[in-house]
Amino acid sequence: MKINTLPVKTWNKLRMNDCEAEIDFDFEEYEYKEEIPEGVCKKTLTVGYDSDEVNPENLTPEMGSRPSFGKGLRTGFGGEFAGELGKSGAPLIVYEFGEDVKYEKPLYQDFTYTSKGNFGNISEFRVGPGTSATVIQFVTSKDAGEAEIFIQSRYRIEKGASLTLIQVQTLEKSCRFYNDIGGNVKEDGSFKLIQLILGGKSCAYGAFSSLEGARSRFESNLAYDLDGEDNLDMNYVADHTGPRSESNIKASGVLKGNAKKLFRGTIDFHKGCAASKGAEAEDVLIIDDSCENKTIPLILCDEEDVEGSHGATIGKPDEKQVFYLQSRGIDEGEVYRMIARSKVAFVERMIEDERTRRRISAYTGEDEE
Amino acid sequence: MKEKTQVEDIDRSIYDFRYADEDAYKVEEGLTEKIVGKISDEKNDPDWMREFRLKSLGIYNEIPVPDWGPSIDGLDMEHIVTYVRPNTKRMQTNWDDVPEDIKDTFERLGIPEAERKSLAGVGAQYDSELVYHNVRKEVSERGVVYTDIESALRGEYAELIKEKFMTLVPPTDHKFAALHGAVWSGGSFVYVPKGVHLDIPLQSYFRLNAKGAGQFEHTLIIVEDDAYLHFIEGCSAPKYNVANLHAGCVELFVGKNATLRYSTIENWSKNMYNLNTKRAIVDEGGKIEWISGSFGSHVSYLYPMSVLNGKGARSEFTGVTFAGNGQNLDTGTKIVHNAPETSSYVNTRSISKDGGINTFRSAVVIGAKAKGSKSAVSCESLMVDDISRSDTIPAMDVRCADADVGHEAKIGRISDETVFYLMSRGLSEEEARALIVRGFADNVSKELPLEYAVEMNNLITLEMKGSIG
Known about the structure:
The complex is a heterodimer. Chain A is mainly β. Chain A is 13% helix and 45% strand. Chain A has helices spanning 61-64, 79-86, 319-327, 332-348, 354-364; strands spanning 2-3, 19-20, 33-35, 41-46, 91-97, 107-113, 118-127, 132-141, 148-157, 162-170, 176-185, 190-197, 202-211, 217-226, 231-240, 246-255, 260-269, 276-286, 292-301, 306-315. Residues 51-70 of chain A have low confidence and may be disordered. By secondary structure, chain B is an alpha/beta fold. Chain B has two domains: 12-302, no CATH class; 414-469, no CATH class. Helix content of chain B is 23%, strand content 35%. Chain B has twelve helices and 25 strands. Chain B has helices at 33-43, 47-62, 100-108, 111-118, 137-140, 149-154, 158-164, 175-183, 416-424, 429-440, 442-445, 450-464, and strands at residues 25-26, 84-85, 121-126, 129-135, 145-148, 188-192, 202-207, 214-215, 218-223, 228-236, 244-246, 249-254, 259-267, 272-275, 277-282, 287-294, 299-302, 305-308, 314-323, 328-337, 343-352, 357-366, 373-383, 389-398, 403-413. Mean pLDDT of chain B is 87; it is low at 1-11. Chain A binds chain B through residues 8-12, 14, 16-17, 269, 271, 284, 286-316, and chain B through 67-68, 361, 363, 368, 371, 381, 383-386, 388-413. Strand 20 (306-315) of chain A pairs antiparallel with strand 25 (403-413) of chain B.
């Protein structure tokens, strides 16, 4: 099936319009660890039937053909994928955050895979009006071989609410990882996404944020460090329909060895989103000649009164920067390592949770102690 | 008779007039082997070209229409006449020998006047054939060849044409390149010898008069090492209520340390499907400069492409596209960096007004051999009202560590404060907005010879008429 579909197609010869993927929705049993803050309600529904009125135990074959994906939720992987997933009958874990609550503790989901298999998890975070919440997902593996892992995170952010979703991924270089995100943000709501991609052999990341409400906001900060035969395919969409909505998508990373990366970033201004603003920026450092870096940042505009911008900087480090550091006695190899590290560090610094920071440091070998 | 006066006259009737084409020879509508054979007969093609056309037709029938870009559902090839020979037997080199109605057409478009004032040579194509071609004596004495491509195909440069023809844009490239290979007719051949620097430009003007017809001219330009050429291309057509088609092809070969500036002011009528292909290959130290103003057509697919094949080769693309009511213009550029230390610079502006749809589409490919290469792409879009649309789709594919690729894009609208300021200085709102848009498009106008810059600004003023309320 096709995932990470570009909202508007371009030349097929460039091979940027979508990504071909084989995802088996027949997932194996897997228990992930979680810590749920007090007051958050958890329940299990079925994908395609994410209405409280539907009891998954009473599903009939006729209902199974219903191509619904939910109440208008779209995700970065796109429509073809949504149709297939909607028919899968996979479980959907819903976390409901209350109204007007500032949750001090984050909701932790720890996905640690220790065996080869086909694993999947679909979570939905419903954040009530006026509430602010944080979800931290840590995805890692040990002796998981060529595991196939699929995680979908959906969100519904109500009026005046905010959700920060932090994802750190340190899978082994043998794992295949599909990470799909999507949801909507109501009036004065905000969704902040922080992603650190440090592992995995072949990864696909998608994120779609529907900015439905007036003054709704979407901020995405993504960093990756790819090496060897790593392959990363991404599709990020800020979909503006609400007036005065704002989006900001930043991606930064390093490519080494034979790594391949494709970044699709779209700001889509629909009619009616007057006075909205959208910006996206990408900064890529390419270390080796055998890397492949593809970037396609789109601005789609159906509304006059908007401000949209995107910028990309791709290639080698700035010569002046390298010269300056060398003149301070740092050898060239170390200079490149430092610059590469800085491309990822800007996202690391956004993660305030101590436990998560320690796990990242343990992985990167830079224990803060 | 209304004549073009370069400055004052901004009436679209300058372009939107027509003559009956009852004296012309036409093939029947549609696209079949028989029709392609008739075109070969009519043009007395050499055997290789006859085969080339039929092979291209086969490719055309196999390639699907693009599944990206604006819809071309309104283009029915079954109703397009692919060859229309005007009522003249052969191309003239003396203006007085051109038939009266055709001469009148080009005089109203200001071509002879421009030839006298500011050009080194002129070619004028009417429907499917070149009707007039002339080059100044002192230019031809320097070895510059500027002629219709059919003459070149049978003359001294026949082997050269055979060697180069549709090698840069092969018929397999896309469906409309294949169509072009099958039914091409007319166009120019230019050869600038090594070291020759032409100070004043050559110009070809393409006029499509016949209703429901296609124009498929082929332009082949070879600029040898250390030479310089500025080539200007203009085009227009009267408006009909049926679809017309333009699927020309431009192939440019730029030698070592040579420079070719290729300027186009495209002003096809708004029933035109403009599916044109332009490509340049640039050798070591050479430079291609694309200057592109797109104002006309109902639908456009236009992406001049530069292949930088020699060390230090350069490409500059400067473009403006103005999409108004009923127009869906998909324009941009493609650049392939195939050699070390190559550089490309793209600077485009798009203006959308009155329901017009603009798409800027680009591709920058930095290959593994392009060490030390640089590319900078800048595109800006202006939305003049709330019923128009503007999309930006730039792609970058970098496969080399030692490269520097930058991209920036902006989209916005005319600032109320700026309009207010200009109105406080005595301009009407319409004048103020037109002035702002002309300023926005000055990246192109300042690169054009004065006469053409004036024409372009007039077109903008014309398009901005009625932009208030």
